[in-house]
Automatic annotation (TrEMBL):
GO terms for molecular function: oxidoreductase activity. It holds the Pfam family F420_oxidored. Keywords: Oxidoreductase. This is Oxidoreductase. Residues 2-86 form the Pyrroline-5-carboxylate reductase catalytic N-terminal domain.
């Protein structure tokens, strides 16, 4: 599958490397790709990356994602957009206290199928089961069932078994996943590790 990962920070490069290792055709998208030669996936401009991908992963800073993606509305139409961000203000407060970044992106790009996932854990726990000390849960939120099924397959490629994937429902449920971020930060601080996640037991 052709996948464009937008953002060359720790999250973007980790996901790009994991998807590349799984056999996907991956490019990294950057606002300024000049001088970014040390990455395994090719780094190209945002427009080229979005145009090349069947799936687009937004690993952009959460509080800037809407502004950065805004000019590419036409290119994102019909695409599957995976949002993995948590939008926090400089004061470390929720940028969307009564909604979520995922829902805001879906409203901004109605012709794009937005799926929220992987935002409830630090980057160290996102890819590869060997990076996680024990089995844990990853969540999905989105309006399009086929899009969520595609994302579930990509999560499997990253080492997440289907049994550990939990579909929360439509994109409005991304609110709860994003609000969880503060508990995640506290867990990392209390446990003194950045490789921590939760397991849902029913």
């Amino acid at each position: 599958m052709k996948i464009a990962v937008l953002g060359t920070g720790n999250v973007g490069t980790a996901l790009a490397d994991g998807l590349l290792d799984a056999g996907h055709d991956v490019v990294l998208g950057a606002r300024d790709p000049a001088g970014k030669d040390g990455f395994a996936p090719k780094v190209v401009g945002m427009q080229e990356a979005i145009a090349s991908g069947d799936v687009v992963v937004s690993a952009l800073p959460g509080n800037a994602a809407q502004d950065i993606l805004g000019p590419f509305s036409d290119s994102l139409a019909g695409k599957l957009l995976i949002d993995v961000g948590n939008a926090l203000t400089p004061a470390f407060e929720l940028a969307y206290p009564n909604a979520s970044l995922g829902a805001a992106l879906q409203a901004q790009f109605p012709a794009t199928r937005v799926v929220k996932t992987l935002n409830t854990m630090p980057v160290a726990a996102m890819t590869g089961p060997e990076s996680r000390a024990a089995e844990s849960t990853v969540f999905l939120s989105g309006n399009d069932e086929a899009a969520k099924e595609t994302v579930a397959g990509l999560l499997s490629d990253l080492g997440w078994s289907r049994e550990n994937q939990l579909d929360l429902g439509d994109i409005s449920t991304a609110r709860s996943a994003e609000h969880y971020s503060f508990l995640a930060f506290n867990l990392m601080s209390s446990l003194n590790t950045r490789s921590v996640n939760i397991k849902v037991v029913a």
